[in-house]
Amino acid sequence: MLILRTKVRRSIDRCRGWLVPRVRAVRERLGEGWGRAIVPAILALILIPFAVPLLAKELSEPLFGDTAMMQYTAWAIRHGQRLYKDMGSTDGPFIHFTQAIIQVLLGQTDRALRVGDIVLQITGSALIGAMLAPRKSLTSLTRKLSVVAWMMAAVGVWLSYYLILAWGVTTNRESFYAVVGSAGMVALYVSGTFPRRTGAILAFAGGFVLMSMCFSKPTGVIYPCTGALALLVREPETLVTRGLRIRSALYGAGACVVGVVLALLLFGSISGYFFWGSKFSGLMSSASSVFPSSLT
Which CA distances in Å does 142 have to 27, 120, 136, 145, 154? Predict the structure, then answer.
C-alpha cells in the first residue's frame, strides 16, 4: 500500500511539474483582462443551442409574399430580362441582384434562398461582433480570442431574435437590409479605433455598404445618414484619422454608385429605375381599363 501511494505521489508530482510551467506560460501569453474579453462567449453557448432546432425548421419553410416576387425578378435577370424594363418592382436593385447572386451560388429553390439568407445573417452578425470586439491593452492571443468570443456572441444574439420571427417575415428584403446596413454602420463607427490603414479599409467598406442601402428602398437612406453621424463623433483617439476615414467612406460610396450603374447598364435600365413607379402606375391603369372586374 505504501509503495502504491509513493508511485501515485510521484506521478502527481511529475504531472504537476509538466503542467504548471505550461499553464504559467499560457497565462503570460493571455495577459491581464483576458477573462473580460472572452466572457461574451458564455452568452453564445447559452443561446446557440436553442437556435439549432429553429434553424432546421426555418430552412424547411416555403417563401412568401414579396420574397417570392423577388425570386422571380432574380430568375428573370438570370434569363436575360432587363430589370426595370421587362420586369421589376418599386424596390431598388439591391435585393434583385442579391437574390440573383444567391440563385447562381446556391440554386433557385425556396430552401436555397433560405440557406443563403441564413448564411448572410450569420456572416453579417459575426462581422459586427468581430469589429466590436475589444482589442486595446490586450495581448495578441487574447485579441484573437476576444474576436472569436464576440463573433459567437453576436451570432447568438442576432439569431435568437431572427429565428423567432414568423416564416413569412424571414428572408424578406428588410432582413437583408438590416444585417447589411448594421454591419456598414458598425464598420464606420469602429474605423477610428483601428490603425490607420485598417481604419481606412473599414471606412471604405462601410461607405460602400451603406451607399448600397440607398438602392434598397426609399427608407434605406437612414443607414448612410446614421453612418455619417458615426464619422462625425469627436473622440480624442479617432480625431487623428478622421479626415482619412471620411475620404475613404466617400470613395467607398462612389465605388458603390459606379458598381450599381454598371450593373444596371448590363442587366437593367437606368431610366427605368428612376421612372419605374410611374411606368408601373401606367401599366396598372391600362390593365384596369381592360380587366376592370379582375382588379376590384
Answer: 10, 27, 10, 5, 18
Single-letter residue type at 97:
F
Residue 230 pLDDT level (bands cut at 50, 70, 90): confident
Burial 245-273 (b: 16+ CB within 10 A, else e): bbebbeebbeebeeebeebbeebbbeebb
Residue bearing cell 462625425: 232
- Domain boundaries along the sequence of the chain: 54-268
Q: Which range (38-42, 98-102, 188-192, 231-235) has the least confidence?
A: 231-235
Per-residue pLDDT averaged across 114-140, rounded? 89
E strands present in 242-285: none
Ranges 113-127, 152-166, 202-216: which has the least confidence: 152-166
Residue-wise burial string across 181-210, b where 16 or more C-beta atoms lie within 10 A, e elsewhere? bbbbbbbbbbbbbbeeeebbbbbbbbbbbb
DSSP class of residue 294? G
Residues in the chain: 296
Residue 284 banded pLDDT, cuts 50, 70, 90: very low
Q: Cα–Cα distance between 179 and 154 in angstroms, integer?
A: 12
For residue 165 the three cell numbers come to: 420571427
Cβ neighbourhood burial of 142 (10 Å; 0-12, 13-18, 19+): buried
